[in-house]
Amino acid sequence: xxxxxxxxxxNLDRSEDRLRTMRQRLERAGLPWQRVAAVDxxxxxxxxxxxxxxxxxxxxxGKRLNPAEVGCYLSHIKALKAFLDGPWTWALILEDDADFPxxxxxxxxxxxxxxxxxxxxxxxxxxxxxPVPVAELxxxxxxxxxxxxxxxxxCILFNRHAARVLLKRLLPMTLPYDHALEQAFVFGxxxxxxxxxPCPAETGLPSTIGDRAQLRPFKLRWYKRLPAMGFRMxxxxxxxxxxxxxxxxxxxxxxxx
Length: 257
Prior knowledge:
Layout lengths: L4 E7 L4 H14 L3 E5 L16 H8 L5 H18 L5 E6 L8 H10 L6 E3 L8 E7 L3 E6 L8 E5 H10 L7 H5 L9 E5 L16 H4 L10 H29 L3
Helix pairs in contact: 2-8, 3-5
């Protein structure tokens, strides 16, 4: 793997079993990597965190703050800072439940060769994302512009420009990290994905944030979620408009003179 690329693995100190599993997966993929000690939400005083806008979170997400989500968010911020503190041009930031296809190392090389076509590249997702292909990749894969939400943040590629922009724009926290990152297009960043999606969102490891039943108590009453619904509708409209512009732009650049 090239010297200007690095992998950052976010891992809680108390999750030694996940670290062992991820070490095996990363070695199998042949990726250089370093661990980023995750921020443990259980240790945070949410009332006195400058990095978090609690009122903005309720307004945009329709839920109360979940300490585990805050810890996850700040862990990703920490990983982006670790990337920029080093000499690398690109970074793969992983959560410790990520997994990869057998040819993942080769795929990363292919994506870096096409790094002029993306700023943020999501390699896993919970949702389909309505991807529109804009470039062919070897092995029947295609680089695509998502016109809908992807969600999930366990396996994402960044360039340095994207990391700088995101560090400026993602604080204070007003959404869970995977939701906030979906706004990359609002920040002028080229958010891309791969179709078919190469990395699974569910890899057999339980979430350290919680399942739906555990997260339900954080949800506000329906009428208090109306601002969040309006925000999401606005964002989805803007995503489609921006995405279509990106698709048209990619199509024009691909045409011969």
